[in-house]
Description:
Radius of gyration: 22 Å
CATH topology of the largest domain: Ribonucleotide Reductase, subunit A
CATH architecture of the largest domain: Orthogonal Bundle
Number of helices: 13
Number of strands: 0
CATH superfamily of the largest domain: Ribonucleotide Reductase, subunit A
Mean pLDDT: 93
CATH class of the largest domain: Mainly Alpha
Helix content: 55-70%
Number of domains: 2
Distance between the termini: 52 Å
Strand content: under 5%
Structural class: mainly alpha
Low-confidence stretches: none
Shape: globular
Amino acid sequence: MTQAEVLKPLKTWSHLAGRRRKPSEYEIVSTNLHFSTDNPDAPFELDPNFPMARWYKAHRNASPLVHPDWNAFRDPDEIVYRTYNMLQDGQETYVLGLLNQFSERGHDSMLERPWAATLARLYSPARYLFHTLQMGSAYLTQMAPASTISNCAAYQAADSLRWLSHTAYRTRELSLTFPDLGFGVNERSLWEQHPAWQGWRRLVEQALVAWDWAEAFVAMSLVVRPAVEETVLRGLGAAARHNNDTLLGMLTDAQLQDAERHRRWAGALVKMAQGEGDNGALIARWIARWEPLADAAIDAYCAALPDAPNAAADAKAATRKFRGSLGL
Length: 328
């Protein structure tokens, strides 16, 4: 090999050099970023038996969901940090506009007291549920075997925090109009004790200790999140509109736009995994393990939801339609 050959510069990063086109911004800043996957026996290039290395070897490297090249995964929306902030800055501007406009109209003072009491029971405690979604996405961000998967999970975690923040903001607003209904005071006891929330608690608390990265993804992205979206967002939003609470209906609509993007990347990852070996059957077994818990959570929550006689059946049908669209 001549010196000229050794010094010949590449036109782009080595892992992207095989392509016949200039790499996109998404490819440059998102792909092949996990150094902890370089050496499977010592994920952090340190003692292979220190606790974190053992954790990654057990719950990522030894996952039964296998693929020869997880780094080949691509986010269908090709979101990067810059474009995520642009996109969600617009979303937050829209939400802030809703909050300001409805506040100026005296929206909360026009709500009937029974519906406000329903919000105290079935809406404001949802910030605990949304926090579990954030935690699940954050775990996947840490454990995913490819940076393109981790990036999707990180943006999903940020969206869950936004949902939580919107709920907390509305809780404070409602407490000013209905100071005697427990807004901002009773949410923890309701989350821990009210029958409507116990199905969700059991589901998410068990999903958060599904340590295998792939089962955690299946449990949270294919079962838990669709159940929450179809029930606590879509179902509650529809009931809100029936009770003259247009604001909540529009807030949940905005959150469901995030959910559609989450489903796109989750679906793309499932389809990629299904192309290898017995992965499809494994994913189906995991869904069969988690789906009954989700159904029970939907039933318990919808039983307490007013003006929504078909909410549980509709929500369960929608979650199955989503999974069915992925061949599951």
